[in-house]
Amino acid sequence: MIGEEILLEIDTTLDQLIQNAEALQKANIQELSETEIEAFQKTQESLIHHFLYMDGCWTEKKKNLKVLNQRSAQCKIQEKLGKFEKLKSACSQTLSKGCSNRASLILKRRSKRLLYRESV
Predict the structure, then answer these.
(1) Cys staple from 14: which of 51, 80, 102, 107, with CB 3.0 to 4.6 Å?
(2) 50: Cα within 13 Å, side-chain hemisphere
């Protein structure tokens, strides 16, 4: 992969991470099922791992690239990375709040099931 392709891949991955994080902020966490939340988390983890892999590729390739081409792409990527970091912390807070509320709801449901089973 050439340097420009690597930067484009990093840029695209960051766009996806940002889009997903923004979508989660707009969503009502209480309306999401556990499966949806887990799918979101796995998707974000996969994208982060891909980003880290591509960043490693970039580190190897950037030594051979011209300085002028690197700077503009790197600035854009740094801006997006900063934006994602902010959204990531907000998403983590949203998910932790939603998961704690959901956990108490699940415990209530389980206790009702146990009470029902014992009475039958």
Answers:
(1) 80
(2) 18
Can you say how many angstroms the Cα of residue 66 is from the centroid of all Cα atoms in its chain?
A: 32
Q: Under a CB-based contact definition with an 8 Å cutoff, are residues 50 and 13 in contact?
A: yes
- Measured CA to CA, the distance from residue 68 to residue 112 in angstroms comes to 65
Consecutive H or E run containing 73: helix 67-119
pLDDT tens profile 1-10: 677 788 889 9
pLDDT digits (tens, 9 = 90+) for 81-90: 888 888 777 7
Confidence at 107, pLDDT banded by 50, 70, 90:
low
Taking only Cα atoms into account, the Rg of the chain, rounded to an integer number of angstroms, comes to: 20
Alpha-carbon distance of 44 to 39, in angstroms, equals: 9
Q: Residue 25's pLDDT band (boundaries 50, 70, 90)?
A: confident
Which DSSP category does 33 fall into? -
* Cα–Cα dist 42/7, whole Å: 23
